[in-house]
Amino acid sequence: MSKKWVRVFLVTMLALSVLIVGCGKTTSDSNEIKIGANVELTGNVANYGQQALSGFQLAIKEANAAGGVNGKQITLVVADNKSEASEAANATTKLITQDKVVALFGPVTSSNFIAAYQVAQDNKIPAVTPSATNAKVTVDDSGKVKPYSFRACFTDSFQGTVMATFAADSLKTKTAAIFVDNSSDYSKSLAEVFEKVFTQNGGQVIAREAYLQKDSDFRAALTKLKAVNPDTIFIPGYYEEVGKIVKQARELGIAVPLLGTDGWTDGKLVEIAGADALNNSYYSNHFSVQDKDASAVNFVKAYQAEYGKEPNVFAALGYDSGLMIIDALKRAETAEPQKIRDALEQTQNFQASTGVLSLDANHNPIKTAFILQRQNGEESFKEKINP
């Protein structure tokens, strides 16, 4: 080979090496920060996912409008998990391996998040759920903390305790029945905690019935519950089934207070159950638009300006999840996933729209719970319960 062709060969190889290095740059070296959103946009709990994503998008939009984070703009990549656990795992794989995101938002429900988390951990990508409340979201069966899992909401243990305490202390109930969704980790966990705490407070759980997601006729089980005449019925579940349960319970003449949790929080609940049926019902929540805290007021105003309507709790928790990731990015001063994870773990006294939160050793926020009620279809604030 002549010297001329040697020079041409070397120049070509050099150019190719530069091209290869350029194509192989990580997201942290570019002018953007890619964050993935793995959310329930279709399927059984689509309203939750859509609302949570709207809040998260608002937080990202505000950060980008303020100049971005560490001099870079945030690019949001969205994947629909179709409200199914297997799809949630597939969506996580796509976001990490194909889209090269450095952090994840969602899924919003416990079963979907738990199914998706292993992929995130295997790839060492931090994930923040706005609303998955099951204990197994952040801690495994052996009690070990899941290192890349974080949440913006309080746990089933806390809200189960809150509702059992509310039933005993505020409503003065002595007996309770539980109607649980046996296909949901969320529902089963809440039922277990409620029964334990309600019993410890001197109450008695006198009946327990079960249903499955996508069931539509609950009359047989409700008739059994009515027969034992409980002072209250605890129904931890999601709005689609809960709405039908409440409607059918009232049609059967069950007039006692009906108790629930944050899964009740969606306007569609009123459409399904009917406004009158929801009278004398109460549920725990992470947020209230009637909260007069400055951060809550500012968030509600910003959300209304962006979307033309009031936010619900999933929008607020989605927004707070965005704030948590943005804050971690700023403190990490890099878009390296491990550094983001470390910064998230150190979140303390952070002002979010739902109040001041600090993450405990299990990556769970310590924060206030709200008790809300429905009267003539309208949601209103009942009381606050501190951790």
Automatic annotation (TrEMBL):
The keyword RNA-binding does not apply. Residues 32-375 form the Leucine-binding protein domain. Keywords: Amino-acid transport, Signal, Transport. Transmembrane segments: none annotated. It holds the Pfam family Peripla_BP_6. It comes from the Bacteria. InterPro entries: BCAA_transport, Leu-bd, Leu_Ile_Val-bd, Peripla_BP_I. The keyword Repeat does not apply. One of its GO terms (biological process) is amino acid transport. Belongs to the leucine-binding protein family. This is Branched-chain amino acid transport system substrate-binding protein. It comes from Dendrosporobacter quercicolus.
